[in-house]
Specification:
This protein is mainly α and 290 residues long. The protein has helices spanning 5-31, 48-71, 79-101, 107-123, 143-175, 183-221, 229-250, 256-278.
Length: 290
Amino acid sequence: MINPKLEFIFLGMALVCSLIGFAFFALKFLFKGASQPPKPFKEETSLESPIIFGLIFLCLLSSLVLRGLHLGRVPCSNLYESLIIFACGMAGIVAFFIDRYKLTFLNWPACLIIITLLASAIWLPSSQKEAVPLLPALNSYWRAIHVPALLISYGFLAISGICSVLYLIEDYKLSKLPPSKGTESNKLNFFGEAIYRCTSFGFPLLTFGIVTGALWANHSWGNLWQWDPKENLALVTWFCYGAYLHLKLSGKARGRTLAWLNAVGVLAIYMTYIGINQFDLGGLHTYGKV
């Protein structure tokens, strides 16, 4: 018999690792990194970043596996479980990007987002954490396909949002200085390339998640598209990132415009994921309402 408390122990361990990581990376940035421009891809190395994010990922994955074994199903049915999947996916994605592309500037902002996700999960009432029977609409194999794909895509796109904010901050700083070449322009190019890399991973998963969601809707409600508020906002999100990739690859927009468009996409994700229930916009997708 699996002790259900073990999942919360691993969740707490993940939160502690995130807090330690945030403190370490933030202090490192303040006393060292802030004065140094990011190096080109695959030049800057960091051993501690993949280790810390790898630990967070393993703790959260262990928590999800234990919860799944306790419930006897894939744990992706309510806001609590989705927040943990989101945080777990994001930790794994950041560990991958830092190890593969040396994007070490992601470490402390990513830790802050993971802390926010985990703190939100812990703050939720016990009714969101208890093992309860699934609603009829959720009792489908599509749930284990649609939900994780969307949440992992949100992880990629949240990271692209971090890069967009950093791009816009750097662009604003440069606008206050005389035109110059070198380190500053390289920094913008660096952030712009990071935005593209993250979005190019997240957009196909987002597309897959929306398509499987439509198939699930057809299976449960007899129609591919209900024009539900959550579905409509998901479509808006898809158009934001689709427009970003189109404009980026066609060369019809660049720099600041692309960063702003990507930032709007992150806002659309927030409204689709949390805002739809937070602002009580109604609809069929009310499983995350507290």
